[in-house]
Amino acid sequence: xxxxxxxxxxxxxxxxxxxxxxxxxxxxxxxxxxxxxxxxxxxxxxxxxxxxxxxxxxxxxxxxxxxxxxxxxxxxxxxxxxxxxxxxxxxxxxxxxxxxxxxxxxxxxxxxxxxxxxxxxxxxxxxxxxxxxxxxxxxxxxxxxxxxxxxxxxxxxxxxxxxxxxxxxxxxxxxxxxxxxxxxxxxxxxxxxxxxxxxxxxxxxxxxxxxxxxxxxxxxxxxxxxxxxxxxxxxxxxxxxxxxxxxxxxxxxxxxxxxxxxxxxxxxxxxxxxxxxxxxxx
Length: 282
Ligand code: AMP
Hints:
This protein is α/β, with parallel strands linked by helices. 40% of the residues lie in helices and 20% in strands. It contains 10 helices and 9 strands. The strands form 2 sheets. It has a 6-stranded parallel sheet with strand order 1-4-3-2-5-6, with helices on both faces. The protein has a 3-stranded antiparallel sheet with strand order 7-8-9, with helices on one face. Strand 8 and strand 9 form a beta hairpin. Helix 7 (126-141) crosses helix 8 and helix 9 packs antiparallel against helix 10 (222-233). The chain starts with a strand and ends with a strand. The mean pLDDT is 96.
């Protein structure tokens, strides 16, 4: 099927309605564009599992708490369309901000507990923006399956909670983090790293591996694990840790006595670029 690009909600609804009437299942991958292998792995999985694959590209203004970050977020529609299509996307939904938030818009979705810590604490309003736009996109696209990356682990949990709490009739699938050869988690923001910073950024992965190994060797003390992980990151010049944590994968609350399954979370600034990463320990 040839890739179709739609910008307006009524045009999206028409395609969705037609697919539903024909008994097709819909797979949905919400993104902010500047697509990379991480996004493409989600699209390919949707292609395998569902009949109509919808990808949205929307740099959601209300989830940015930093104007410079919003303004400098990479945008590359022609390239994105080519990549999405090659990965199996049927329909690309690229709404304007006004299409999603028309004048007078005033309804927001808030997931209260899961957003208290980590990204939620450092980026006030971020998850309210995410939950609101994802809820709206779910209503518009009406997917049977929605695909998210574990790379943004807190986001995936927040969306999962919202789906459960608000009764969205869909299945959420969270797929593993796709990494560059050195281990750096793929991210649209990696484009902002200088070659030196990029070399340093690989260390975040090494730190997560160190933490995972310690837990596998039965380290139980949170403080000891974090100390060793911190020591790895400190080797990188210009790296500034924003948080580093071992948490319960369900509640995202810190685990003082670490047990499995656990989730290691980190946010580190490398130069001017803020990177997040995580790793599951089963
Ligand atoms: P974004 O465009 O950054 O909003 O990401 C769109 C979706 O792609 C989210 O579900 C992300 O978690 C997912 N994603 C981003 N980077 C990766 C990655 N390196 N591996 C797997 N999924 C990713």
